[in-house]
């Protein structure tokens, strides 16, 4: 009997969990975040549409070209191109998001991608220069060593942060450029065996077995696999929770017994490891050579926007990566403008994503619904009329009172001017009776300031007698009056809205009932 | 051999101007508590405006006199300021994360610059033409006269003015107080957000000027990036420990190392031939030097205490 009850309890809790998941009662916060991101993307596309139209191209045709030249292309290799970019972005962004979750901002993603690309490329090209046929073993070795080198680079940043308090943003920015110059030396200098003679980059990998045309599906499956694994670890395990708490409050996590320094180092290393994997795929499989670098890989910086838009959720990353993959691989040259226009779209979207608090209270649908309901009702029109009338009357009265007061003040104008002049001198700290040169001791200075404040008090009283402060008092009074009217008006509007809402809901329920009854007959 | 020394000094002076302006730009925003990673982006924007206007004047209007530099510097300073207001909007008004907003500014500026240059030149990535420099000599390879130019006087004046403004005036004291403790400044009757807007505007003007100097130096090969000098400027700011004097000294040190690379690249001095191949590795030196310097100074850094923290006036 007891056992049955136990299982019954278990079943109910499980069912409750299911329903709350499906109805999204706990997901409200997450849904709000999603709306924020969607608004950021929407406004980003709208604003960049204005830019694109400055270039003499219809923005809608530009956006449709983005789609037809990447994900919906009829030409298979273009689709593979898109898929590989998609996979690379997903993997690199997972690295970024893990860092963000734990409160670490790893701007070095692009440097770490280049690091693993450089090392991997050197291994592959080294074998190629020796005349060895490139096989899966060599590529695997290149990937592993490349990822390890990226992890090492990340570990340096982590150690610097954990033990020497060097901020990771600064150290990763510096290391990005170090990597750029190392790669530039290795792949453009004539003294290394990897560079082309015209120093435009490295020599090409001569085997196309591992090019993205043949291996795109491997990278896509790998990327989705990593996304799912990360999601499970981050949301279902203790490790993931520790990582999150580390980001929410360093003190709390320390108190709970997490080794904070080890945590920091390992998170940056893991983040760099994902970046390394993405970099290896990008250079060895996707580009097939290492072009002469002038600056850190721009693709790597997109990961910041991607994980911001996804609020660092691994599932959300899939969608924001999809957006950025479309932007990155779309080809606008068909429309006669250069492909750099997409950099603008990406830049504006990331800026708006950074401003996401702006969209936190942006509830377009509720807002329009409220207003439509209000505009239909007659009471609202009357209310508005009434409110405006009251405001006008108050304004008139205020004007009249103030004018009267001014007339009164004009009679004593000369006196007020003199008093004001004295007040100004006092406010500067000059006393009419004592001289500052006589102040020698602390007592003197106390006396001096005492004298000033006494004089101020006297002048204030005199001004008050002349009704000098009356105008500001009237203004303040009316300010509170206006506020009162406004609050009343707002509450009346809310009442109307609630009432109408109830009526409409009742109407809908009635209609439904009548339909069901008819069906019953 | 002469050309080596000329190129060395001329490049050192140019980089000194760009880097110290960049560093001061960061200093002015951090002193009011705003972390400005977007200096690189603002520099790009200022440089872009300068380069585009210079192209318009030299190519379409056939004027390339050096005196044009004065109005163009002013315009690019103002445009840098306006661009930095985007960062101000994000950090002061909307209270979003400073670093993320700065990164966004960088991305935005890079995108805008590449697109504008491509559309101005009709698809070519270099701007293509430029105006003369307001200097004693235009010859940057064999004449020391090109050191005496508008930019060096401008930069020295700006450094002096900012030193005195920050150290010796009431305004400077209030300015610095906001980076250290905005709430205390607020209680003392200082309009915190107004000072923050001033700080970000000055930061934008200086970064825009730095970009303009970069664009003038790059001349016709300006391609919408400033070679990461904005990031280097942040490193210089940290090495200079948020102090005008030290920032200028650090900028000078960096510019010397940068100049050595440039001189190795540009001169045809035979004694240098064996190390020309390693010039990229020499470029690493300033970055690594900063990193090593940071290792030893970060524990007792003199950064403004409230820098990077959004200021929220407590609601009564």
Outline of the structure:
The complex is a heterodimer of chains A (521) and B (316). In chain A, 78% of the residues lie in helices and 0% in strands.
Largest sheet of chain A, described in full?
A: none
Shape of chain A: extended
Q: Whole-Å distance between the termini of chain A?
A: 46 Å
Radius of gyration of chain A: 35 Å
Number of helices of chain B: 12
Indicate the percent of residues in helices of chain A.
over 70%
Question: Could you characterize what this model shows?
Answer:
The complex is a heterodimer of chains A (about 525) and B (about 325). Chain A has about 525 residues and is mainly α. Helices cover about 80% and strands about 0% of the residues of chain A. Chain A has helices spanning about 1-25, 30-55, 60-70, 75-100, 110-130, 135-165, 170-190, 210-235, 240-250, 250-255, 260-285, 300-310, 315-330, 340-355, 365-375, 380-410, 415-430, 440-465, 470-520. The radius of gyration of chain A is 35 Å and the shape is extended. Chain A starts with a helix and ends with a helix. Chain B has about 325 residues and is an all-alpha fold. In chain B, α2 (about 40-60) runs parallel beside α4 (about 100-120), α3 runs antiparallel to α4 (about 100-120) and α9 runs parallel beside α12. The termini of chain B are far apart. The model of chain B has no long low-confidence stretch (mean pLDDT about 85). The chains are: A mainly alpha (about 525), B mainly alpha (about 325).
Offer a few descriptive terms.
heterodimer; A: 521 residues; mainly alpha; 19 helices; 0% strand; extended; B: 316 residues; 12 helices; globular
Question: Which helices and strands, and how do they pair?
Answer:
The complex is a heterodimer of chains A (521) and B (316).
Chain A: H1 2-23, H2 28-54, H3 59-68, H4 76-101, H5 109-129, H6 136-164, H7 168-188, H8 212-236, H9 238-248, H10 250-255, H11 260-287, H12 298-309, H13 314-329, H14 341-354, H15 364-376, H16 378-411, H17 413-428, H18 442-465, H19 470-520
Helix pairs in contact in A: 2-14, 4-8, 4-11, 4-12, 4-13, 5-6, 5-7, 5-11, 5-12, 6-7, 6-11, 8-9, 8-13, 12-13, 12-14, 16-19, 17-18
Chain B: H1 2-31, H2 39-60, H3 69-93, H4 98-121, H5 150-168, H6 170-180, H7 182-187, H8 192-218, H9 229-239, H10 244-266, H11 273-276, H12 279-297
């Amino acid at each position: 009997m007891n056992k049955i009850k136990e299982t019954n309890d278990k079943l109910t809790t499980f069912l409750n969990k299911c329903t709350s998941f499906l109805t999204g009662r706990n997901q409200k916060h997450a849904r709000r975040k999603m709306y924020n991101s969607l608004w950021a993307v929407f406004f980003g596309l709208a604003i960049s549409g204005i830019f694109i139209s400055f270039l003499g191209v219809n923005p809608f045709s530009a956006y449709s070209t983005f789609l037809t030249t990447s994900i919906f292309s009829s030409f298979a290799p273009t689709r593979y191109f898109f898929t590989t970019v998609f996979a690379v972005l997903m993997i690199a962004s997972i690295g970024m998001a893990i860092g963000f979750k734990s409160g670490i901002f790893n701007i070095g993603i692009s440097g770490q991608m280049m690091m693993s690309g450089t090392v991997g490329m050197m291994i592959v090209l080294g074998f190629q220069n020796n005349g060895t046929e490139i096989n899966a073993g060599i590529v695997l070795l290149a990937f592993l060593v490349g990822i390890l080198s990226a992890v090492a680079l990340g570990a340096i940043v982590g150690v610097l942060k954990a033990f020497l308090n060097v901020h990771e943003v600064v150290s990763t920015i510096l290391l990005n450029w170090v990597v750029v110059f190392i790669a530039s030396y290795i792949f453009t200098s004539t003294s290394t065996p990897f560079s082309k003679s015209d120093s435009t980059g490295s020599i090409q990998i001569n085997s196309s077995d591992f090019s993205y045309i043949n291996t795109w599906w491997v990278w896509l499956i790998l990327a989705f696999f990593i996304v799912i694994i990360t999601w499970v670890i981050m949301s279902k395990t203790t490790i993931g929770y520790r990582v999150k708490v580390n980001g929410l409050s360093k003190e709390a996590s320390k108190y709970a017994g997490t080794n904070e320094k080890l945590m920091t180092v390992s998170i940056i290393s893991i983040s760099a490891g994902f970046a390394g994997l993405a970099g290896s795929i990008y250079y060895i499989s996707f580009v097939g050579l290492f072009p002469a670098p002038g600056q850190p890989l721009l693709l790597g910086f997109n990961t910041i926007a991607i994980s911001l838009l996804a609020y660092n959720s691994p599932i959300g990353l899939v969608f924001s990566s999809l957006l950025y993959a479309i932007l990155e691989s779309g080809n606008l040259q068909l429309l006669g403008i250069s492909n750099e226009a997409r950099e603008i779209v990406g830049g504006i979207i990331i800026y708006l994503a950074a401003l996401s608090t702006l969209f936190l209270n942006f509830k377009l649908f509720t807002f329009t619904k409220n207003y439509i309901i209000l505009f239909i009702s007659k009471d609202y029109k009357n209310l508005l009329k009434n409110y405006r009338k009251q405001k006008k009357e108050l304004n008139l009265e205020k004007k009249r009172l103030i004018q009267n007061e001014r007339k009164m003040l004009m009679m004593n104008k000369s006196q007020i001017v003199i008093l004001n002049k004295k007040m100004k001198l006092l406010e500067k700290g000059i006393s009419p009776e004592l001289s500052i040169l006589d102040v020698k001791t602390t007592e003197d200075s106390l006396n001096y300031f005492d004298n000033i404040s006494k004089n101020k008090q006297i002048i204030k009283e005199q001004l008050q007698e002349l009704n000098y402060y009356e105008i500001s008092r009237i203004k303040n009074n009316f300010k509170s009056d206006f506020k009162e009217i406004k609050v009343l008006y707002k509450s009346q509007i809310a009442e109307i809205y609630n009432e109408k809402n109830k009526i409409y809901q009742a109407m809908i329920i009635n209609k439904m009932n009548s339909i069901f009854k008819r069906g019953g007959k | 051999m002469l050309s080596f020394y000329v190129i060395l000094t001329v490049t050192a002076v140019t980089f000194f101007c760009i880097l110290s302006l960049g560093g001061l730009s960061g200093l002015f925003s951090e002193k009011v508590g705003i972390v400005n990673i977007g200096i690189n982006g603002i520099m790009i924007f200022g440089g872009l405006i300068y380069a585009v206007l210079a192209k318009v004047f030299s190519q379409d209007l056939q004027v390339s006199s050096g005196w044009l530099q004065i109005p163009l510097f002013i315009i690019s300073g103002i445009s840098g300021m306006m661009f930095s207001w985007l960062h101000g909007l994000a950090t002061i008004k909307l209270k979003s994360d400073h670093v993320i907003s700065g990164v966004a500014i960088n991305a935005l500026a890079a995108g805008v610059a590449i697109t504008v240059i491509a559309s101005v030149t009709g698809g070519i990535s270099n701007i293509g033409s430029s105006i003369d420099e307001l200097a004693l000599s235009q010859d940057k390879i064999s004449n020391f006269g090109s050191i005496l130019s508008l930019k060096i006087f401008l930069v020295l004046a700006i450094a002096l003015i900012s030193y005195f403004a920050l150290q010796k005036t009431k305004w400077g004291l209030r300015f610095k107080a906001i980076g250290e403790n905005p709430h205390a400044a607020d209680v003392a009757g200082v309009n915190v957000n107004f000072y923050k807007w001033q700080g970000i505007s000055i930061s934008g003007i200086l970064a825009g000027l730095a970009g303009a100097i970069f664009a003038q130096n790059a001349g016709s090969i300006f391609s919408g990036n400033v070679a990461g000098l904005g990031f280097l400027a942040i490193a210089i700011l940290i090495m200079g420990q948020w102090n005008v004097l030290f920032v200028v000294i650090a900028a000078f040190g960096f510019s010397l190392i940068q100049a050595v690379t440039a001189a190795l690249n540009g001169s045809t001095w035979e004694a240098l031939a064996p190390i020309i191949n390693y010039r990229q590795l020499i470029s690493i030196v300033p970055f690594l030097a900063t990193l090593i310097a940071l290792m030893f100074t970060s524990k007792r850094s003199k950064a403004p205490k409230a820098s990077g923290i959004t200021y929220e006036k407590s609601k009564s």
